[in-house]
Amino acid sequence: MQIKRLIITPLENNGKKLVDTYYPSVERAQLLMTDRIKSGLANKYNQSEKPKPKIPKWLKNFVNPKSKVD
């Protein structure tokens, strides 16, 4: 199967540009798509962890961390 046109957009404007190719080879298309997917996963998993909210003292009496619910 021949790909007529392949357009890959960057997730962020961090220096990468839009990729627009006509009739790319299968290897070239695969390389461009895997690069795009990997860049998206890297951005997703490299985000800093959100701070966990503190449980108010009055609510701690209602929560037993040692108990488990199946």
Describe this structure in words.
- The structure is a single chain.
- The protein is an alpha+beta fold.
- It has a domain at 1-44.
- 34% of the residues lie in helices and 11% in strands.
- Strands 1-2 form a two-stranded antiparallel sheet.
- It is elongated, with a radius of gyration of 23 Å.
- The model has no long low-confidence stretch (mean pLDDT 74).
Order of helices and strands: EEHH
State the secondary-structure class: alpha+beta
Determine Rg (CA atoms, Å): 23 Å
Shape: elongated
Low-pLDDT windows of residues = none
Q: Name the strands of the widest sheet in spatial order.
A: 1-2
Characterize this entry briefly:
The chain is an alpha+beta fold and 70 residues long. The protein has helices spanning 26-45, 57-60, and strands at 5-8, 19-22. It starts with a strand and ends in a 10-residue tail after the last helix.
Write the layout of secondary structure elements.
Elements: E1 5-8, E2 19-22, H1 26-45, H2 57-60
Antiparallel strand pairs: 1-2
Describe this protein with a few key phrases.
70 residues, alpha+beta, two-stranded antiparallel sheet, 2 helices, 2 strands, 34% helix, elongated
